[in-house]
Design brief:
By secondary structure, the protein is α/β, with parallel strands linked by helices. The chain is built from 10 helices and 6 strands. Strands 1-6-5-2 form a 4-stranded parallel β-sheet. A two-stranded antiparallel sheet has the order 3-4. Helix 4 crosses helix 5 and helix 5 crosses helix 8. The model has no long low-confidence stretch (mean pLDDT 90). The chain binds zinc ion (2 copies).
Amino acid sequence: MRHSWRQRLSSWGKIAELLFFPSFCELCRALLENPGERVICRLCLAKIRPCPAPFCLACGRFFEGAGSPHLCLECLRGNSPLIKHRSFARYEGVVKDVILLFKYRSFEILGTFLGDLLAGTLGHEEDLWEGVGAIIPVPLHPIKRKKRGFNQAQVLAARLARSKKIKLLDRHLFKLKDVPPQTTLEAEEREKNVRGVFDVRRGQELKGKTVLLVDDVYTTGATLRECSRVLKKAGAREVRAVTVARA
Ligand SMILES: [Zn+2]
Ligand SMILES: [Zn+2]
């Protein structure tokens, strides 16, 4: 087969890149030699799979063992302002490693990949998407955003919005205060920690809408519940949420 000069040039380019600027998988250290491989190798990427366990229809908690989705005890009892939340996987193994690389090592490209995974798996769940009029990322405080260079939730939300063809509203919910990370706090302290931390601008664009919040990790749900409360106060009709992983 004859190769065009363009193809030859690009394969020489790839060889030169491998010789002079070799890059290795951030997880298994394998040489990234396949076209399109960035940050982590294909084999590691292939290990990122949705959690096959049954889940709570409301809060998205994964159950142990087999069975079909149903409501967990807490959701049967409680009256959460967040109606429906779904995670792609449990916060463990490769999924956790990739989220940490994405967030703390600033490999923004991994967010694009994770966003596409969310769209490809949770994107088919009719009851999650039915009637959704806007996608909203959980905001970062501007100082933190500047430090990281991007808001991880915004990268994920933008990808989901693009793939589902739903409007992305990323200038409507914002964070007023930079509070200690939720992961450093006990469960009850997390609710207090986020109380009054978020606010809404241009609330008129949210009136009567069903909105879908997007974040990277769900720990106790305190952040999503507080965002949901604020969005509803501003006039949103219903708030649902998706996250990459559930701790
Ligand atoms: Zn690898
Ligand atoms: Zn539940």
